[in-house]
Write a structure and sequence with these properties.
3 helices; extended; mainly alpha; 47% helix
Length: 93
């Protein structure tokens, strides 16, 4: 992370990207059966077009639609806890 006077910039290395990709591949196999098909950002769930289709199909029934995102979500994850959870899950699988 790079801290400026009024900004915080998260700087990911190529090794970070490689580890995240490897974890994504492995976790996708285990989590896909329990994840909602409405997680449109996941491969095979329709992407942006699927999300737009879902909203368009339901917008007449509802007055409001909102999109959520958490700024800095991945940077805010406590890595020690994440690794403990990972270790625990791998021991039981």
């Amino acid at each position: 992370m790079i801290r400026g006077e009024d900004k915080l910039i998260e700087w990911w290395s190529s090794l970070d990207a490689l580890v995240l990709k490897a974890m994504t591949i492995v976790l996708t196999e285990h989590l896909k059966p329990v994840l909602s098909p409405r997680c449109f950002h996941l491969a095979g769930n329709g992407g942006l077009k699927g999300a737009v289709r879902e909203v368009a199909a339901n917008v007449s029934e509802h007055s409001f639609v909102f999109r959520t995102d958490v700024k800095g979500y991945y940077a805010s994850i406590h890595h020690g806890i994440l690794m403990d959870i990972d270790q625990e899950k791998r021991e039981y699988s």
